[in-house]
Amino acid sequence: MTALPTTLEAARRGTATPSPPAAQRDPATGADVALRVLDRCRDQVRPALEEAVGRLHPWVGEMAAYSFGWCEVGGAPAFASGGKGVRQALAVLGAEAAGAPGRAGVAAAVAVELVHTFSLLHDDIMDGDADRRGRPTVWRAYGTGPAVLAGDALFALAVETLAAQPRGAQAVRTLSVALGDLVRGQADDLLFADRPWTGPERVGPDEYRAMAERKTGALLGCAAAVGAVLGGAGPGTAAALDRAGRHLGVAFQIVDDVLGIWGDPRVTGKPVHGDLRERKKTYPVLVALGSPLGGRVAALLETGDAPETAAALIEEAGGRSAAMTEARRHLTAVETALAGTPLATGAAEDLRSLLAYLVRRDT
After folding, report:
1. Is residue 25's pLDDT more than 60?
2. What mean pLDDT is predicted for residues 206-210?
3. What is the helix (H) or strand (E) element at residue 136, kind and residue range?
């Protein structure tokens, strides 16, 4: 996993170097391998995803297509970013890791991508987010009620897609577990916002890790596991891939937290100290609140008036270094889960490259 030291170092420093144009890239780098894997998997999944969305009610299907970046409001073609397709790739690679051709994991990729998009539609409503990937969110573009309906339709379509597969019952059970965890993680995340900065009711780092595993990690693990299930993998292989994805989700979220405070805006696309201005209870903040400097940190966060001072104090309290140590611990757990499982060699290498890339925030 050669890209991981670079990733973690960039997050530790709060700086990163943007990737060069494709023609100038070294084809041997882990990031480029991962980008090729993402492209390859998207190309396999896109036709099936379009076919599935095409089965929806036309109005609901338009909202789904808008959320994927395929069209504008009203249905005119668009070329907006629909995301990297990470979960799609994990599903295809899960099937390949089990020794099956990638196409065996396409239905899993479609189902998990539909569920992921369903969760984003509802998350944007709950969080009141007006924009996603540079465009109005679905609820802003079409209305709250229609966005809820579109999310519900995507969820139903995901279950239908998996249930139709030869090993569909097992795949649906795996997805159901992940969905239950996703809901629990989202519930905890919403409740964290109303809890105090200090005192016995404050949010602890352990609670945060559990939330991140459920909200971010569950669907990553599910993607790889369901792909493996449809590829004919045994329970042990599917469970190992699920564990790897869950640990990856925690590492990804914590690195994101570090960059949300100290990241370079030219790289992250977000304002420096943005998470502090929004008074988010992120992992570095929670560690600092539990330190001897916690009272001073809480006072600064309560007012939100001096994010630069708060960032420096959180770092002095050990929040930044503790966060990076925790991210490394979960990345080691990812590698342990993969190393202890018999996986098809080529697919395993592609999977490692992709997992490393997911915590790179400088590309």
Report:
1. no
2. 97
3. strand 135-136
Phi, psi of 266 (to 5 degrees): -65, -20
N residues, the chain: 363
Distances in Å between the alpha carbon of 118 and those of 114, 137, 153, 154, 267?
A: 6, 12, 8, 6, 28
Q: Measured between alpha carbons, how far is residue 217 from residues 54, 211, 243, 247, 295 in Å?
A: 29, 9, 9, 6, 31
Residue with tokens 């059970």: 173
Instruction: Tell whether the model's pLDDT for residue 356 goes beyond 70.
Output: yes
Residues in contact with 304: Cβ distance below 8 Å, sequence separation at least 6, in sequence order: 276, 277, 279
Distance of CA 303 to the CA centre of its chain: 30
Paired residues of 71 in beta bridges: 77
Say how far apart CA 192 and CA 203 lie, in whole Å: 7
What is the structure's pLDDT at 363? 32
d(CA 214, CA 244): 13
Span 288-332, pLDDT tens digits: 999 999 999 999 998 888 999 999 999 999 999 999 999 999 999
CA distance 96 to 161: 20
- Give Cα 25 to chain centroid, integer Å: 25
- C-alpha to C-alpha distance for 36 and 32, rounded to whole angstroms: 6
Q: Is the pLDDT score of 12 beyond 70?
A: no
Dist. CA 153–CA 163, nearest whole Å: 15
Alpha-carbon distance 271 to 252, whole Å?
19
In the block, tokens 């342990």 appear at 336
Which of these, 254, 188, 260, 186, lies nearest to 219 by C-alpha position?
Answer: 186
- How far apart, in Å, do the first and last CA atoms of the chain sit? 16
Amino acid, res. 316: E
CA dist 242 and 238 (Å) reads 6
Residue 358 has a pLDDT of 78
Q: Which pLDDT band, with edges at 50, 70 and 90, does 4 fall under? A: very low
- For residue 244, give the amino acid letter: A
Helices 235-262 and 345-358, interaxial angle, to 10°? 20
